[in-house]
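Methods: holo model generation. Sequences were used as deposited, without trimming of termini or removal of tags, and paired with ligand SMILES retrieved from the corresponding compound records. Each pair was processed once, and we did not select among multiple samples. The sequence and magnesium ion SMILES for this entry were:
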Amino acid sequence: MAEKISAVIVTKNKRLYELLELCIRKNDDFEVLDSFSDNSELYNTISSLPKSVLFVDLQDDDLSLVENISPDCPNCKIIAVRENPDVSFIVKAVRAGAKEILSYPIIKTELEDILERVRAQLCFREQKQDKCKMISVFSNKGGIGKTSIAANLALELAQITKENVALIDLNFQLGDITTFMDLKPSFDISYMLKNSDNLNKDFLLSTMEKYKNTSLYVLADPPYFKQAENISPKNVAKLFEILKESFSYIVVDTEASFDGKVVTALDCSDMIFLVTIVNLPALRNCQRCLDLFHKLGYDDDKVQILINRYMENDEIGADDVEKLLKKDIYWKIPNNYFALMASINKGILLSELKPDSNVALSFRELAMHVSDSVFRKKLIKKFSADNINRLDEIFRS
Ligand SMILES: Nc1ncnc2c1ncn2[C@@H]1O[C@H](COP(=O)(O)OP(=O)(O)O)[C@@H](O)[C@H]1O
Ligand SMILES: [Mg+2]
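and the model returned the structure below.
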């Protein structure tokens, strides 16, 4: 039989504890662990468990336990329990790292549904698109902002969702990700592919470079030209397949070309952020890429336009761009030369170096926008249309 998922219940409410324990014990996929004497014992145990679920009573609004456990324990699914949770509590709890909200008094079927979802997530049996979202940041022009966008978006996604995010540098031979993030990784993509027979979640998490104390993992480009030559599109496809089983989000910084490996990444992606700046040569180029994506059979929704270095008073306005490209603009990242240059020169991403700058805020909102659809999918099942409208307001505010 498969290994059981350990369930931990944290509450001072004896009645709640007994009810949860009773229901969970009836499910053969779970075993309830005894209570812990303090939070550090709890933390140590959870971080060493391969699969766990933590029920935390948040009646007192204290999110500190959730905030502490969530970034370090990706294999622990946190369920926030609270009497009649309102929408602002749900948003706070989800942002802190809770994966589900269970309302108290407990409805047995609701708890059973949660246990089933937790089991499916932890055993990787969830539908592919729910489990991982892969985004490629692309333009066939260099110097347009692809690396800046990919690196900052990936870090914001990790910080907001607290889920495992992979950032892949697909600029073989000329990758910049390690410079942008001041990393000296021990392993690169060619090492990964040489060991493709061993590729699994544990191998990836232990060999990819973890970025500081976050849930962002980086896979660098190969340092030598020779190594890059041996990497085929087929190898790259296999790598993405395994990454998709192990990460919630994959962000790919692509090369400015339609090389086979890049097209493989684009094919495998759920979303392509086609980056342009507002000038005629770049926009014409963008038009050609859109035509090509159409020919490749990509859905309109899969390809989204990101304007980089946007300025309100530019000669060519956002409306003109939409008319020219016959497509809505998905996102506009403001021009901020000084913030970007300082960030690149220091090797520190914007959310750390200039968290209040307009560009850092834009990346944070973009990451929220990308991850919101995942939050919503889960929440829609539980809450009425009124509440969802209210959620929209909160996410936008
Ligand atoms: N929003 C922005 N505002 C100002 N400068 C930017 C912005 N985004 C990128 N840049 C600058 O553009 C240059 C190229 O960025 P980079 O991310 O390396 O592009 P690419 O990966 O497409 O070659 C960098 O010097 C960077 O500072
Ligand atoms: Mg680049």
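The chain is about 50% helix and 20% strand.
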